[in-house]
Specification:
Elements (H helix, E strand, L loop, with lengths): L2 E7 H4 L3 H16 L8 E7 L5 E2 L2 E2 L6 E7 L8 H20 L8 E7 L5 E2 L2 E2 L2
Parallel strand pairs: 1-2, 5-6
Antiparallel strand pairs: 1-5, 3-4, 7-8
Helix pairs in contact: 2-3
């Protein structure tokens, strides 16, 4: 259940939606394996100019911020440190390939863990 939510300035996102969804899905499948491809969900959220601030100041340019929802059990795996590192690198590479190399240094990827019993789909508790 890899879920990625990308926040970017609307002007930076327009016209790149399909390429970004494809690149991010490919990056997750490259780390998890092809079995995960059909489970990857990508949400693209474009913010209009004047709706993103850094240090209390509105910015005209900013690199995308990516929140990557994963199951908490991933962090208990023996290879968790390597897996986290590979996921962050792969997702960053994918975003930089779409948004441009100049965005790489500021791209943030945050892995957010969901413990068992804290997600529902269609009104039912997901396992």
């Amino acid at each position: 259940m890899p879920h990625l939510t990308i926040h970017a300035l609307e002007d930076d996102l327009v016209g790149r939606e399909a390429a970004l969804a494809s690149a991010l899905t490919d990056s997750v499948a490259a780390v998890y394996g092809q079995w995960a491809r059909e489970l990857v969900t990508v949400r693209l959220i474009g913010l209009p100019a004047g709706r993103w601030a850094v240090g209390g100041q509105l910015v005209k340019t900013v690199s995308p911020a990516i929140t990557f929802g994963v199951r908490a059990a991933m962090f208990a795996r023996p290879d968790a440190d390597e897996l986290v590192s590979r996921l962050i690198a792969s997702v960053t590479d994918a975003a930089a390939a779409v948004f441009g190399e100049q965005s790489r240094a500021g791209i943030t990827v945050e892995l957010v863990a969901t413990p068992p019993g804290r997600t529902g789909v269609g009104g039912l508790l997901a396992e």
